């Protein structure tokens, strides 16, 4: 009786000590840590030094209530003027690299192929990049993080196949102007958000709602644009510049809602409709078969003369496949996936093409973002899925992080990073998954799209009410620095 009581108390106390569940494995020596931001979310200076208008400038100026509190990115963190402070923060964190994105409209104010280059735009990015290199921080550069030049949107935006030519011109310009300094290029960030949310569901600029059609056309053009940029780099720049190119694709982890075969099938279908939509054509070959089959079949039943999912020609399939030097993942959370009966065939849309019931567990810890609950084991499962599905590629985690409503003391964020990193190091050390980089989102609080400044993801806080946009280090930044320097999540690693 006494022994049982003692054991119970011990189990209870050990259970309270969170670090007990934390991995004692050490991140390998070659493993690199970074932090990320994106141009529209931090730069501000929306119309300075010759920058053109982009779709986020346009939507926030013409339809201010589109964003919570009528916030916009006109000034944001003012990184256009304060980039040296940003670099000093990165140096203080001790990160190996900084992931930031280029504003297409700052470099090409008109956006289109053949249009003039804004020298001051290039100068800004050369300044930022040089400042990083002078401080021993490697630049990792995203070409496109959702801020399409407005003139290109007026031509139809990503569903217009002409975008491939404009993007190719932009990519070549960037490789020419910055390629001597930058060795890691990310063509697109989370294209599913650009296409599905921007053209399908309307919850991101340019806020179109033609799901099941425009989102598929957008993706088709975007994948071809990626492949073209990859080949341009490979053929014209790689031998002299020696860099690498990949695409950042996001997914949540989809956990089968039960042990049934049907729920397992639903979960696999869901990840094929998210990561696979982009990953399959680039890493393997063509769209996932389950997407091709389901959308062909539903389109036929709906009376469309051809599938709503555009087809790649055989030549295109071969041009696109293999256009990656690494696999990149943005991952934050998980959903349960449950098989469901086919919905009304007259419903045209991505969700009904997918037809899986997705939900979150009420017991998962909440964040400030409704879509994001804390599910650390989802990261280990996702990287294992990538490794298995895509034949053990090198994987970069290009974003991972959590939101709150603000404050310098942020134990929830510390806990989030500890537990996700714990699952990641176990995936590397125990499961043999080849993950070589981890990027915290975000370096600092910034413009969180439709949520404005209300959801905060930063390791540093930014005072958006002050013209100085004063940055202050959070407790999580100290924690992240410590992890980077010790490469270990507990007091002492094995
Ligand atoms: C780039 O740096 C130089 C030297 O500090 C400065 O004079 C110039 O204004 C900067 N340009 C931009 C666009 O930030
Ligand atoms: C990870 O992938 C890279 C690139 O293919 C390779 O050089 C490296 O040896 C791999 N590392 C491990 C631990 O498999």
Automatic annotation (TrEMBL):
One GO BP: carbohydrate metabolic process
Enzyme class: hydrolase
InterPro entries attached to this UniProt entry: GH, GH_1_N_CS, Glyco_hydro_1, Glyco_hydro_1_AS
Keywords: Glycoprotein, Glycosidase, Hydrolase, Signal
Record flagged with keyword Zinc: no
Signal peptide boundaries: 1-21
Residues forming the catalytic site: 399
GO molecular function terms attached to this record: beta-glucosidase activity
Annotated EC: 3.2.1.21
Subunit composition and interactions: Homodimer.
Family: Belongs to the glycosyl hydrolase 1 family.
Xref: PANTHER family: GLYCOSYL HYDROLASE, LP05116P
Identification of the protein by name: beta-glucosidase
The encoding gene: AUGUSTUS-3.0.2_09017
């Amino acid at each position: 009786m006494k022994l049982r009581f003692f054991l119970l108390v011990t189990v209870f106390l050990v259970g309270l000590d969170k670090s007990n569940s934390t991995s004692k494995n050490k991140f390998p020596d070659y493993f690199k840590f970074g932090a990320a931001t994106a141009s529209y979310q931090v730069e501000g200076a929306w119309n300075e030094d010759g920058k053109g208008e982009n779709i986020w400038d346009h939507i926030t100026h013409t339809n201010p209530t589109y964003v919570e509190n009528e916030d916009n990115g006109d000034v944001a963190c003012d990184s256009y003027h304060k980039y040296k402070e940003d670099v000093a923060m990165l140096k203080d964190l001790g990160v190996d690299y900084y992931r930031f994105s280029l504003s297409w409209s700052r470099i090409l104010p008109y956006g289109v192929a053949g249009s003039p280059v804004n020298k001051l735009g290039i100068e800004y990015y050369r300044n930022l990049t040089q400042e990083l290199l002078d401080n021993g921080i490697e630049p990792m550069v995203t070409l496109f993080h959702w801020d399409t030049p407005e003139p290109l949107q007026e031509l139809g935006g990503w569903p217009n196949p002409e975008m491939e030519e404009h993007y190719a011109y932009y990519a070549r310009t960037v490789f020419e102007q910055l390629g001597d300094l930058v060795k890691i290029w990310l063509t697109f960030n989370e294209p599913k958000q650009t296409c599905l949310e921007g053209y399908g569901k309307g919850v991101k600029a340019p806020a179109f709602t033609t799901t099941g059609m425009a989102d598929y056309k957008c993706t088709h053009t975007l994948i071809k644009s990626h492949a073209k940029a990859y080949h341009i780099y490979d053929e014209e720049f790689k031998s002299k510049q020696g860099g690498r190119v990949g695409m950042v694709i996001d997914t949540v982890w989809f956990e089968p809602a039960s042990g049934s075969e049907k729920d397992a099938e639903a979960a696999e279908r869901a990840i094929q409709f998210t990561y696979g939509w982009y990953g399959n054509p680039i890493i393997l070959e063509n769209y996932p078969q389950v997407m091709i089959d389901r959308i062909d079949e539903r389109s036929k039943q709906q009376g469309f003369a051809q599938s709503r999912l555009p087809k790649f020609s055989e030549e295109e399939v071969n041009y696109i496949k293999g256009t990656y030097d690494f696999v990149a993942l943005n991952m934050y959370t998980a959903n349960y996936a449950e098989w469901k009966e086919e919905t009304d065939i007259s419903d045209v849309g991505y969700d009904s093409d997918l037809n899986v019931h997705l939900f979150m567990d009420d017991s998962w810890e909440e964040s400030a973002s409704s879509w994001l609950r804390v599910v650390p084991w989802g990261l280990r499962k996702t990287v294992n899925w990538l490794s298995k599905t895509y034949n053990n590629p090198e994987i970069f985690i290009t974003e991972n992080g959590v939101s709150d409503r603000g404050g310098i003391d942020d134990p929830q964020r510390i806990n989030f990073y500890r537990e996700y990193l714990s699952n990641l190091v176990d995936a590397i050390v125990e499961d043999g998954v080849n993950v070589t980089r981890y990027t915290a989102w975000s370096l600092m609080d910034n413009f969180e799209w439709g949520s404005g400044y209300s959801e905060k993801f930063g390791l540093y806080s930014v005072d958006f009410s002050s013209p100085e946009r004063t940055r202050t280090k959070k407790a999580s930044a100290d924690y992240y620095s410590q992890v980077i320097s010790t490469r270990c999540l507990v007091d002492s690693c094995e």
